[in-house]
């Protein structure tokens, strides 16, 4: 199994592996073109080529940042606002009709608690899933392995470390249930 395959499967992997570095370099180059495009239409076309999937009528507003791009799938009619960062060592799946505010951060990667392992840059990644009709407020952080349930709201500046049930509003650091939503 390659280091890239280990990364995608949530196993510890060597982050400086040549294949992984090539993927990062490719994304870096493409993101530079996207974030400096002379029109929104050009940026959208290049983003569609970089990411695994961008659904119909979805909009991604540059600047946009990711680590690889090819693990990111965005459904239909979704909006990714300016300054969003997605560290996509594992899949990031975003549903339909999702609104993600400015400067939101999605992190699939984490590191061991053991400092000796961190010295070796050990990393492992778990997927993030954002289901349909979710609204994530600006500057929120969604951490590895989290699923945000359908129709939920994540308040601005929240740090989400655990799954959010459908039809819920969460906020705070760490994010806690504020209330159940009536749909």
TrEMBL record:
The lineage of its organism: Bacteria, Pseudomonadati, Pseudomonadota, Gammaproteobacteria, Alteromonadales. Residues 4-56 form the Maltose/galactoside acetyltransferase domain. Keywords: Acyltransferase, Repeat, Transferase. This is Acetyltransferase. Belongs to the transferase hexapeptide repeat family. InterPro entries: Hexapep, Hexapep_transf_CS, Hexapeptide_acetyltransf, Mac_dom, Trimer_LpxA-like_sf.
